[in-house]
Amino acid sequence: MVLTKEYRICMPLTVEEYQVGQLYMIARHSHEQTDSGEGVEVVENVACEDPEHGKGQYTEKRIHLSSRLPYWIQSFIPKLFYVTEKAWNYYPFTITEYTCLNLDPVSLNERLIEFVDIAYDEVNPKHYKEEEDVRYFQSKKTGRGPLVEGWREAVTPIMCSYKMVQVSFEVWGLQTKAEDLIQRSIREILLLGHRQAFAWIDEWYGMTLEDVRIYEKQMQHETNTKVVGNGDPDVTALKDENAVHSGSDTIKPASTSSTPTAHTPTTPNTPCTPKSKSWFSWS
User: Fold this and answer.
1) Residue among 188, 161, 3 at smallest CA distance from 94
2) How far is CA 234 from CA 24, 56, 196, 229, 275, in A?
3) In the beta sheet, which residues pair with residue 63?
4) What distance separates the 2 farthest-apart alpha carbons in the chain?
5) How far is it, in rounded angstroms, from Cα 271 to Cα 221?
6) SS3 of 74, please?
7) Is the dihedral of CA 109, 19, 13, 40 positive or negative?
8) pLDDT of residue 142
9) pLDDT for 34-45, tens place per residue?
10) How far, in Å, CA of 239 to CA of 246, rounded?
């Protein structure tokens, strides 16, 4: 059985602003969440092109997780462990790892839809920062905020990010527990990251796409240094070949909804239907 959820995240931004804000947030968030030997290592970040979606950006990352996993999962994986993430970003459409999920009507009907409220959904206390609480934050550059009760019906501009996540952990006795844990972890990441994207708006607002790519490159260098040190050959990781993740994101105005469709890729190869079952699938 596969646990499928679709997360819908409204943001007080335009679709164009979200492109810059999301890139800024991911780069800064990854850097802040990375410690020595643990976190996000960027392996590759290059331009790519797709016949349907046009020019985009391809990234490959290693998410080092060993000590951050629950003990009951650590017993099933190598001591040094990372998940490889490959993403093709044809904004506002993003494909992450191996496949673009083109769900059939049955799967669409069976998926669970969750709305993520960046203002009033509770974040883990260990991640809470008063300056990132968007119930009280107001942007000096745009005047947007604070986000009061009912903000999604009252605020303009507004857009919505749709993220389909499929999780399959086929280990007898642990499947339900593991799939639920993974979905809860992903929801927490989406909630925290999107809160930060708005709370940091005064840091990125006015940046061009070129500006934020330069910032992204700087942060990736600093983050890689934190993860693997200065090229220490003794710092290595093992990839669990049974642990892969895949999917696509779609960013749209809040009033619309659609499901991404599959397409023919170009170099670097945009993923097609996977040949083996996925442990984790994000679209």
Assistant:
1) 161
2) 31, 34, 35, 10, 33
3) 40, 83
4) 54
5) 26
6) helix
7) positive
8) 97
9) 876 678 888 899
10) 16
Which residues lie below 8 Å from residue 172, measured CB to CB, with a gap of 6+?
none
Q: Does residue 178 or residue 264 have the better pLDDT?
A: 178
DSSP 128-147: --GGG-TTT---TTT-----
Q: Give the tens place of pLDDT for each residue, 130-153.
A: 999 999 999 999 999 999 999 999
Rg of the chain (C-alpha set): 19
pLDDT digits (tens, 9 = 90+) for 43-93: 899 999 999 889 999 998 887 766 666 666 666 665 556 777 888 888 988
Neighbour-count burial of 131, counting CB atoms closer than 10 A to its CB (0-12 exposed, 13-18 middle, 19+ buried)? exposed
Categorize the per-residue pLDDT at 213 as very low, low, confident or very high, splitting at 50, 70 and 90: very high
Please name the residue that has the structure tokens 């850097």. 31
Nearest in space to 114 (alpha carbons), one of 225, 15, 206, 4: 4
Q: Are 63 and 83 in contact (CB under 8 A)?
A: yes
What whole-number distance in Å separates Cα of residue 146 and Cα of residue 201?
A: 13
Select from 56, 41, 55 the least CA-distant residue to 87: 56
